[in-house]
């Protein structure tokens, strides 16, 4: 019930290679749980923004009245990684020892925001639903923790995909829930939902 909403939400997106990246933003209005109306879109060329500073942007919505006020900061990634199973970041005993010391009781108050990290090994999926006419799917896996999101590559034409990837997230809130969702890649169309599991951090 507002024409001037304030969300004050922060989202983290991770880039691991030099490439041209556009941030696409949609503003939608919900009448109820089933009906949504598009109120406008805007785009930000991330590569054109100055790095290591917070950029305040007022973005007019395309073909619709109104604008978005956003703070966007482009900074080097810290605490987040994607690696192959054979080079797992915790596989090195000396690194394990360093991490044990870093999170020991005596260092608990050295950095209040650094409460730990979560390492997830995404191995494979079994007996997925066939989303294509060929009786196969093109599955990929998305991991979300708080407002952090990482994803695997797509394994094409396979109902039993193997990803064998290791994902590392910094933990910002011990009450967060890790959500793992499997989608079917569908070209230029939105991906099809194949399944989801939610794992509270406190259960790990």
From TrEMBL:
<keyword id="KW-0812">Transmembrane</keyword>
<keyword id="KW-0677">Repeat</keyword>
<dbReference type="InterPro" id="IPR000008">
    <property type="entry name" value="C2_dom"/>
</dbReference>
<keyword id="KW-0479">Metal-binding</keyword>
<keyword id="KW-0106">Calcium</keyword>
<dbReference type="GO" id="GO:0005509">
    <property type="term" value="F:calcium ion binding"/>
</dbReference>
<protein>
    <submittedName>
        <fullName>MCTP2 protein</fullName>
    </submittedName>
</protein>
<feature type="domain" description="C2">
    <location>
        <begin position="93"/>
        <end position="204"/>
    </location>
</feature>
<dbReference type="Pfam" id="PF00168">
    <property type="entry name" value="C2"/>
</dbReference>
<dbReference type="InterPro" id="IPR035892">
    <property type="entry name" value="C2_domain_sf"/>
</dbReference>
<dbReference type="GO" id="GO:0030672">
    <property type="term" value="C:synaptic vesicle membrane"/>
</dbReference>
<keyword id="KW-1133">Transmembrane helix</keyword>
<keyword id="KW-0472">Membrane</keyword>
<dbReference type="GO" id="GO:0046928">
    <property type="term" value="P:regulation of neurotransmitter secretion"/>
</dbReference>
<comment type="similarity">
    <text>Belongs to the MCTP family.</text>
</comment>
<feature type="domain" description="C2">
    <location>
        <begin position="1"/>
        <end position="59"/>
    </location>
</feature>
């Amino acid at each position: 019930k507002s024409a001037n909403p304030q969300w004050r939400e922060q989202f983290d997106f991770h880039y691991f290679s030099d490439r041209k990246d556009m941030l696409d933003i949609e503003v939608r209005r919900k009448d109820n749980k089933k009906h949504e109306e598009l109120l406008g879109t805007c785009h930000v060329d991330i590569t054109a923004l100055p790095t290591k500073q917070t950029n305040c942007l007022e973005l007019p919505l395309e073909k619709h009245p109104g604008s978005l006020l956003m703070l966007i900061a482009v900074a080097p990634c810290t605490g987040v990684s994607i690696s192959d199973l054979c080079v797992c970041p915790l596989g090195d005993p000396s690194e394990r020892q360093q991490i044990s010391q870093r999170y020991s009781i005596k260092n608990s108050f050295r950095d209040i925001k650094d409460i730990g990290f979560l390492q997830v090994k995404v191995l494979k999926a079994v007996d997925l639903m066939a989303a294509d006419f060929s009786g196969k799917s093109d599955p990929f896996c998305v991991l979300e923790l708080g407002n952090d999101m990482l994803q695997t590559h797509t394994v094409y034409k396979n109902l039993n995909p193997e990803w064998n990837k290791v994902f590392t997230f910094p933990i910002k809130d011990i009450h967060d829930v890790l959500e793992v969702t499997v989608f079917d890649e569908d070209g230029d169309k939105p991906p099809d939902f194949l399944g989801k599991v939610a794992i509270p951090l406190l259960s790990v």
